[in-house]
Structure formats: C-alpha cells, structure tokens
Amino acid sequence: MVIKTENINTISLNNIDPDHIGLIVYNLKDDYSCLQNLHLPNRRTFYTVIYLTSGVITLNIDKYNCQLQQQQVMFFSPSTVLSLLTENDQKDGWVILFEEHFFTQRYNDNVLHHFSFLKTQKMQPQNVAVEQQLGWPMILETMHREYLFSHPDAKNILRSYLNIFLGTLSRNVNTEGTEIPKNEKEEKVISFERLISEQFAHERLPSFYADQLFISTNYLNRLCQERRGISAGQLIRERVLMEAERLLIHTYKNISEISFELGFENVSYFITFFKKKYGVSPEEFRKKQ
User: Fold this and answer.
1) What is the C-alpha R_g of the chain?
2) Contact 50, 57 (CB under 8 A)
3) Cβ atoms of 261 and 247 closer than 8 Å
4) Domain assignment present for 114
5) What SS3 class is residue 121?
6) Count of domains forming the chain
7) Most buried pick, 22, 73, 164, 205, via CB within 10 A?
8) Residue 76: domain span
9) CA-CA distance, 114 to 79, in Å (whole number)?
10) What is the model's pLDDT at position 111?
11) Cβ contacts of residue 150 below 8 Å, gap of 6+?
C-alpha cells in the first residue's frame, strides 16, 4: 500500500513541538502524537529513530513497505519519503527526532556522517541486540527526562547522550564494526553528496560542484570512483532518478509537472533519461508501482 498526495510535504520539528531545542524524545506509551504528522508522505528536516519495545508499526519508506515489531529499531534520514500506515493501537517504545545542527553544535560538521547507518538508509527493521535491550532504557529515560525538564544545561547533556545512543546503535547495526573511514577524501565526497541533495534539480554538471568544493572536476571524479565506485556525474544522475521515483510513486503530479520540478528542459528528454535507467517510461513505471 502506498499513500499518494498532491505534494510531498516537508515537516520540521516546529510542526511537532514549537518549543523544541533541536531534539525531541518521546515515549510512545505515554504520547503517540509525535508520529501523527507522519501519516501522509513526507520529508523531514530532521533524523528519525524509532525503537519499538511492544506493538507493531507499519511504514512506507520510498517505495518499500515494512513492519517494525517488538525489539526492533529503524532510522530515517531527512531525504527519505516516509509515511506511517499503522493504526493508533497500543505501542511502547521510543522516538528520537533530531536536527543535524543540534548534534554539530558540539561535534564537528561531519561527525554525524561517520555513523554510516544514518547515511545509507536500511529499508528493513534491525533487531536490537540483547546488550542494547539492557542498556538503552536507561539512556532513553534519561534523555526523555532531560528533554521534559528543559534545564539550562539540558542541551549539552542531551548531545552527549545522543552521541552515546548513536554509537551503540551503530554497533547494533554494524555487527562487524565497519564504519565509514574518517579521512579527507571521504569528507570531500560526503560534502559533495550534501551539495547534490541541495541543488540536484538545478545543477547537473560535476564542474559546478567541484568549484563549490575548491577542487578540480577530474579530482572530484577520481574521489567518487575511489570512494563510491561511480563517477561524479553518475552520483548526480542517481539522485535525480531517486527523486523522480519518489514523485511518481507518492504524488498525483503528471509527467510534465515532475519533469519541470526536476529541472528538465522538456518532457521528452526526461522520459528518455528515465527510460535509459529503468527500461520503461515514467508512466509505465508508475503503473507497475
């Protein structure tokens, strides 16, 4: 089941709690309202982590449906299109919503991106290891208490606990301990991917992004081949195609409207561009979904 809408809305933490501090922590047993805004297809300006200790939550992420069950966790980056398909029945667990700048006000800009699970969206729930089942309640209850009491130093405490929680979550997801290597080349590619997400609809040339990063286009291509296995141009095209998929699946927009939104000069070029990747036209792709 996929819910369609006229537009994929972007939700900020202001829509959930106007008095937020860049992070919100909810106990699902006490308050389910934090998920009410997620029923229609949406993007978010914040990261989302849902840890369920009882009950079931059904979700759609991009074009995938999945069920989050007892002692499972899922995490969503802001760019994913997410909709909640579940009924409001009894559930228990935790929801953490946080903006990138909340984390980076204490840690440097790219530290968050070294948690590889936040960068590479996993479309299936992750089973929570026994050691996390034992350790997370204390961490999450402390975070929830600090969030509710809003003490003047709560932000610093919450940043520290968030870092601990993400670290143990990373350990749970990456059982082999594999993380993105922290080096200058990886930092450049991460910055490039950030820029693509911000400007892909209007800027398609690798040279534009190379200039923004103060490196040559050839060097940018070498970095992308080395770190991602594809060229800079292909990374840009993959992002455009991902957005085309989302608009075709989650909205009622016609092909002409989608083509315009993605910055194509004409519809026929968009159809050719899309068909080269998927082997079918955008309209045929939509019907199959």
Assistant:
1) 20
2) yes
3) yes
4) yes
5) coil
6) 2
7) 73
8) 9-173
9) 17
10) 62
11) 21
Per the listing, tokens 């989650």 go with: 250
Q: Which one, of 77, 17, 26, lies nearest residue 47 by Cα?
A: 77
**Neighbouring-strand partners of residue 127:** 72
Which of 173, 204, 225 is at the close of a domain? 173
Task: Tell me whether residue 42 is in a domain.
Answer: yes
> The whole model's pTM is what?
0.82
Whole-angstrom Cα distance, residue 211 to residue 214?
5
Q: What residues contact 52, with CB distance under 8 A and at least 6 apart?
A: 28, 68, 69, 70, 71, 72, 73, 91, 92, 93
Of 131, 151, 173, the residue at which a domain comes to its end is 173
pLDDT on residue 253: 94
Contacts of 49 (CB under 8 A, 6+ apart): 73, 74, 75, 76, 94, 95, 96, 97, 165, 169
Q: Give pLDDT, residue 172.
A: 79
Q: What is the pLDDT of residue 174?
A: 65
Question: Is residue 2 in a domain?
Answer: no
If asked whether residues 244 and 135 sit together in one domain, one would say no
* pLDDT reported for residue 281: 95
143 and 244 share one domain: no
Separation CA 166–CA 187 (nearest Å): 19
pLDDT along the chain (289 residues), means of 10: 81 90 90 75 91 91 87 89 76 92 71 68 83 94 91 89 90 59 79 91 95 96 94 96 93 95 94 95 90
